[in-house]
């Protein structure tokens, strides 16, 4: 046979393994949940409500700085505020009090963003992006159910979901640190977390739910296959081996296998002791 034709056939077989999949292995529920997790993380990525700032004292200490073009009162901060090119500036009053300015292309924010706060929000942007990407990969794994070893290991052990849970937890911790830092910059204001943190928290909880549903789906498939194996293998044909004059060591594995087929829920240790073979004279 032509070697080049054999090579083409092997390549075609490899390609078909990636394209053709078993629908019974697909977990559409976990796939849908992962898509929803990706949607929530993208919503958190474009949110402007990660940190809410409310001036409870109606202070006008920084009102003179609103004369700058684009200057506005800092009432909320979000990851969307850190997409564009930005720079930092400042002003020192005669009494030594410092004011920090965060400049973007279209506005200037006073006394609410420092380089540390900006770095924390850049980290939040990276975490939200990775969560959305990981959730989409998990959705593809659950829906397509590729039969390859490493991908099967990722799907059955819910690696993507566990990564998303840890990433969401890390993002929530970073958001709380950012909120605490902003509160230190604005002691006269009431600073709290916004909807961005809650969106990512919900994404982490849904990742946990997706992991539970994936484990349940895999358990049901394993049990169904075990029942099918019991139906295909007839225990009666194996019981006839007990009448043969073989040694006890030969019959023991067969009896163990019969007892495994007879019980789909109990373990071998819970069954009665194995009867000893009858010695013939």
TrEMBL record:
<dbReference type="InterPro" id="IPR046795">
    <property type="entry name" value="TMEM127_TM"/>
</dbReference>
<feature type="transmembrane region" description="Helical">
    <location>
        <begin position="165"/>
        <end position="185"/>
    </location>
</feature>
<feature type="transmembrane region" description="Helical">
    <location>
        <begin position="197"/>
        <end position="215"/>
    </location>
</feature>
<feature type="transmembrane region" description="Helical">
    <location>
        <begin position="120"/>
        <end position="144"/>
    </location>
</feature>
<dbReference type="Pfam" id="PF20517">
    <property type="entry name" value="TMEM127"/>
</dbReference>
<dbReference type="InterPro" id="IPR033331">
    <property type="entry name" value="TMEM127"/>
</dbReference>
<protein>
    <submittedName>
        <fullName>Transmembrane protein 127 transmembrane region domain-containing protein</fullName>
    </submittedName>
</protein>
<feature type="domain" description="Transmembrane protein 127 transmembrane region">
    <location>
        <begin position="112"/>
        <end position="215"/>
    </location>
</feature>
<keyword id="KW-0472">Membrane</keyword>
<dbReference type="GO" id="GO:0008285">
    <property type="term" value="P:negative regulation of cell population proliferation"/>
</dbReference>
<dbReference type="GO" id="GO:0032007">
    <property type="term" value="P:negative regulation of TOR signaling"/>
</dbReference>
<keyword id="KW-0812">Transmembrane</keyword>
<keyword id="KW-1133">Transmembrane helix</keyword>
<dbReference type="GO" id="GO:0016020">
    <property type="term" value="C:membrane"/>
</dbReference>
